Structure formats: structure tokens, C-alpha cells
Amino acid sequence: MIKGVKQIIFDLGGVLLNLDYSLTENAFIAAGVKNFPELYSQLQQSDLFDRWETGRMTAEEFVAAMKAASETPLTTEQVLGAWNAMLLDFPIRRLQILQQLRNYYDLFLLSNTNEIHEETFNNTLMQAHGIPNIGVFFDKVYMSHRVGLRKPMPEIFMRVLEDNGLQAGQTLFIDDSPQHIKTADELGIQTIYLQKGMTIEDDVFKQMR
């Protein structure tokens, strides 16, 4: 087991759930939004995604904003389908690892996400594995759109620590975004940066077979 660690905080997308952002880009382009890469970059630089991922925008408002930003008329179904295209699968080995880790550690989930994706990935988990939601593997779940904070803000890390009486030095955080790792490091949390091509089953918990 990992030295000095009593609890582990997991990121979701790219760590537990496989993602492919290019599928969302390709789906929007196929729907007629030929400038989607430019559009997506512009929207990311606005406060739209900050409001979306911190629960200050409803799903209906998000869909309307995406429609309004597009030069091509889009249906709600096209927006939802394209937006969800990036969400892939939960490899069974990762879920088994979570079950094993619960014998040794308190587990927490800390994810930047939104209500559309939360519903979709939980449906995927149910259809593929008969598990109703990702929360069954964790002592507590922190979704950005539910708590009104998002990574890499230090406040959301402090919320997890303070809510649960955790010591930063006894806490491990696993994420695939360097800016999130940087904040956790600065707060004294132990970290593992899951770089591109790495997985928790092959590179972090390989011994748990």
C-alpha cells in the first residue's frame, strides 16, 4: 500500500472514465458546426463553461447557449449527442481496483463535470455493469456543478479536506490535469499525475491483481 496515505481522492474523467474529446469535436462538425474547434476554444475562454461546471447554468440554458453560438441550426438532440460523445467506458478493472482499495483507504471523488454528463456516465455505468451510480465506490462524491466550485480552485480541495477532517499530508490525489495537480501539491496533498497513456490499472495499482 502507499506509504503514509489514509485516503485517496480520485478524478473521474481520464482516470476512471475513458474520454475522447475528439469525438465531441467530430460530432459537432458532422452536425454542421464546421468551426467547432474555434467555437469551443472561444467558449472555453468565456465564463460559459465556468458557469456550466459550477451549477450556475441549467442544462436547458447550456443547450440554448450552444445553439446560439453555432452558425448552423442545431436540434437539442444534436447538441446532447455531440456533447456526450466524448464519454466512453468504465473499464471493469478500474472498478475492481476501487472495490479493493476500500478495504484499506477512505475514497473520495472530485470531478469537474456537469449535470448532462453526470446523468450520461451513470447511465453508462448502469447499462454496462449494473451499477446505479459512480458514488457507490466512494465515501463521498464532490461534483463541481453540485458544490459550486471547480478544480483547480484551492477552495474545492479545502472543502474535501475540511468536510471530512482529512490531513493533507495523509491524502493522495490522482488526476490527469497538471493544473489540478499543481494546486493539490501547493496545499500539501500527495499527488500522482496520470500523464497521457498512463492508467491506474497499469501504472499506479498494477500490484492489485
Notes on the structure:
The chain has about 210 residues and is of the alpha/beta class. The protein has helices at about 20-30, 35-45, 50-55, 60-70, 75-85, 90-100, 115-130, 145, 155-165, 180-185, 200-205; strands at about 5-10, 105-110, 140-145, 170-175, 190-195. Helix 1 packs antiparallel against helix 5 (about 75-85). The mean pLDDT is about 95.
List keywords for this structure.
2 domains, 5 strands, alpha/beta, 48% helix, Rossmann fold, 209 residues, globular, DNA polymerase, domain 1, single chain
Q: Give the spatial strand order of the biggest sheet.
A: 3-2-1-4-5
CATH class of the largest domain: Alpha Beta
Which spans have pLDDT < 50 for at least 5 consecutive residues?
none
Total domain count: 2
Overall helicity: 40-55%
Mean pLDDT: 95
Query: What is the percentage of strand-forming residues?
Result: 5-15%
Name the CATH superfamily classification of the largest domain: HAD superfamily/HAD-like
Radius of gyration: 18 Å
Q: Which series of helices and strands comes N to C?
A: EHHHHHHEHEHHEHEH
CATH-scheme architecture of the largest domain: 3-Layer(aba) Sandwich
Q: What is the approximate shape?
A: globular
- Per DSSP, the total helix count is 11
CATH fold description of the largest domain: Rossmann fold
For the termini, the CA-CA separation is 13 Å
Number of strands: 5
Q: Main sheet?
A: 5 strands, parallel
